[in-house]
Amino acid sequence: PTIPTLADGTRIDDLVNLATREVQMRTLSDPEIYELEMERIFGRIWVFLGHESEVPNSGDFVVRDMGSDSVLVTRDKSGEVHVMLNMCTHRGMRISTLDAGNTQIHTCIYHGWAFRPNGEFLGAPVEKEQMYGKIRTKQELGLKRARVTLYGGLIFATWNIDGPSFEEFLGDAKWYYDMLFQRTDRGLEVLGPPQRFTVRANWKAAGEQSAADGYHTLTLHRWLGEVGNYSKKGDGEGGGGDLSPEMYGSEVSSPHGHALRCIDLARKIRRLTGKDPSQLSIEEKLAALPPAGMTPEMVPQLKKHLSDGQLQALTWMPPQVGGIFPNVLFGFVYIPQADGSVVGSITLHAYVPRGPDKLEFVNWILTEKDAPAELRDKMRKQTTQLFGTSGMVEQDDSDTWPHMTLGAKGAQGKKMTLKYQAVYETGKPEGWPGPGIINEGFTKDDTQWHWWLYWRQLMLGEI
Ligand code: FES
Ligand code: FE
Description:
This protein is α+β, with helices and mostly antiparallel strands. The chain contains 11 helices and 22 strands. β1 (about 15) and β2 form a beta hairpin. It binds FE2/S2 (inorganic) cluster (FES) and fe (iii) ion (FE). Fe (iii) ion (FE) binds near residues 216, 221, 393 and 397.
């Protein structure tokens, strides 16, 4: 394909400098670039829309966004989940003006055309006068449908009907995601509807940070080491203002822009057991510290769903924070409690583009379906306090993105660059059981740089 050029003559491939690992700031504010992203990224790849537990029953629906398009996410009578453009095929009115609901008939409020939850055209008022016309058949008048996949209950959809499968899109990263989303018999579910708030920022400011930027934690979230249970000084655990031990681990980069931070658990396990983790079996480690969001009673389920290598990684350096390209962040993190124990928190954010300088931050709180009521309550409360729309952590992050977006509009600012020059060059730790592009050590820029490389490829139309 021809390389797209912006109105001022800039070629899209010049926005990402492969030699110096820099990205032009203007990418964070330019309306032309934004329009191209809606076509070439959100119009083509798999986009996250929600969790199937949000539409558990026949007729349930939620309204979400795939880039700049509103979509209906529905469940039909057969139990299948569908994603369709939220636009009437008559004159383009929005089919659902609600956020969520239940109906077997979606009726357009303009002239009353009606559609089934699977998108089929049901009929139009004054049917005997054939008000849908003689040119098109009823079959042709159904809603525009996207291709849908469910992964661990997460709903993804794409307009690229014949494109790569979702598994191909995840690639090697799937081995790591499976440890989080496909680890138990009954899987995850949402704890209520998602929280939402609008941030005056370009979606990529949040998106590239979600590609596993661990570094900012030391400064932007410095308070994590200074207040409450976080600040308690444990045996080499950090605390007392020092978050740096949490910066070590293995980071997973992906040619498709996905990213994971696998953080070393050794200190936590040593503190909980008083023993050297290298002397403990996988079972002993799981008993001392079950994966975030699980109880010791649920641990036997892991063996049914995960390989030995995954169990080894899960008890050594489990994935705790990561992103799914282009706009999803998730955390499976351990929150310290006053009594020295930890409570797992599972959160998932989507940064939905709302124009070149606006995004909607959508936050889902998740739990294992099998988690006991007491744990669910704690998870809901602590995840909201930290990672919710008014959460202590997210108030920090959402403060930076608007400044970057505004700065990228400046006559001088737009000519500056984002820099991704901290390179690992370390490779995987010895004995690491997982696939993919792995680097160990202190958190670096590699995962985010891969995020931009995939962004560039998509924008150039290379894939
Ligand atoms: Fe929907 Fe006319 S636009 S029925
Ligand atoms: Fe952050």
